[in-house]
Amino acid sequence: MAEEQQQQDKTEQPTPKRRADARKKGDVPRSRELTMTGVMLSGAGTLIFMAAPLTDNIGTPFAKSFEFDRVNVFDPGYMTESLGLALRYVIAGIAPLLMVLIVSVFASAVLIGGWSFSMKAAAFKGQRINPISGFKRIFSANSLIELLKALGKFGVVITIAILWLWWSLNDLLSLGMEPLKSSVPHAVRICAISLLIVSTGLLLIAAIDVPFQLWKYQKKLRMTRTEIKDEFKETEGRPEVKSKIRAMQQQAATRRMMEDVPTADVVITNPTHFAVALKYDDSRMGAPKVVAKGKNLIATRIREIAEDNNVPLFSAPPLARALYRSTKIGQDIPAGLYTAVAQVLAYIFRLRDGFKPGQQALQKPEPEIDEDLF
After folding, report:
1. Residue stretches of the chain with pLDDT short of 70
2. Do 334 and 327 meet the contact criterion of CB atoms below 8 Å apart?
3. 328 Cβ contact list (under 8 Å, min separation 6)
4. What are phi and psi of 132, to 5 degrees?
5. What's the distance, CA 213 to chain centroid?
């Protein structure tokens, strides 16, 4: 009762992870009817084309077994030699047929579920030999379906077989009037054609069973909403763990950023809410680069580090906001801010280099910023 209730709760489609886990365990859709139909059709088709060589390879040692003289009768090794010769002929005759059957078994088996090899599927499970579980399987709905399929196969095959035997009755009776050499290959060919005709009836059973097996497999892999949530937590990580990881990553990124502040040429401030540290080297850089930025508490910390390391502070609220919102750490400033930043850097560099005699007094620039940038 609990299993039925659990199955009713499984209303969600299986996730890719659920399918992958099932495949790792060797749980893939399979159709025994498709496999059996493929084997019988390929075997029958091979027999039709191999009737003559097969009868020759098998008939030759059979005929030779009746040919012996008085010397061979008293030869202890003659029986072994004859048996080895017969085996070589038989193996040579049926080897192609066996190869075709082996290939058809694998090909038809993986046709709907693909290739899957798992030792978990072959591992010993105690419930397989549990008599109580065995009785449950015998009287389960799945056993009833298998019984109905078996009865259906029997009905289809026996009907086709009777109709075909009635249709080919004259050919079967005419075999007695043919020479032995030609009647044996003819008989093998008739048997192969009969097997092929009867096997085509199994195509109907396979055409019904394959969609059923796919539907059954899909239903078995269905999940409850709780299972999907648990899988998401397992795959993506629990929210509290992800939050902690993000916090640690943010702390590490902030620490690295603060280490770059002493290398900056200038820190442009708001003056209290924003702070952006810029670095420019005309021999190695095409444009000034943002090495650190922040607002509120982080901006305060950037200013403190800059002051401790003698990095100039330049108050330009519009420019600070524009740099903060338009440029990421480690990126060059946008082209629209080249002129404004160039004015600030030129002022800072002249202050750093000091004044020369006769040089005009420096005037602090007031860079103009396009309103769209901040």
Report:
1. 1-9, 51-52, 54-75, 78-79, 113-142, 176, 180-182, 184, 233-241, 354-362, 370-374
2. yes
3. 290
4. -65, -45
5. 21
Distance CA 130, CA 140 (A): 15
3-state class (DSSP) for residue 274: strand
Q: What share of the chain is helix, strand, coil (3-state, %, to 5)?
A: 70, 5, 25
- The pTM is what? 0.47
Q: What is the largest CA-CA distance in the chain?
A: 138
CA distances from 68 to 17, 59, 71, 308, 354 (A): 69, 16, 8, 114, 123
Q: Which of 286, 261, 289, 259 is nearest to 275 (CA)?
A: 261
Q: Given this model, what pLDDT does residue 2 score?
A: 45
CA distance 373 to 322: 5
Considering only CA atoms, which of 168, 191, 225 is closest in space to residue 12? 225
The phi and psi torsions of 329 (rounded to 5 degrees) equal -65, 130
Residue 162 zone, left/alpha/beta (φ > 0; ψ -120 to 50; rest): alpha
User: What confidence score (pLDDT) does residue 277 get?
Assistant: 92
Give dist(CA 365, CA 334) in Å, integer: 20
Distance CA 199, CA 295 (A): 79
Eight-class DSSP state of 60: H
- SS3 state of residue 77: coil
Integer Cα distance of 293 and 326 in angstroms: 11
Which residues does 90 contact at the CB level (< 8 Å), separation at least 6?
A: 57, 58, 61
Least Cα distance to 51 among 99, 98, 100, 97 occurs for 97
Token pair 């290939």 is found at: 103
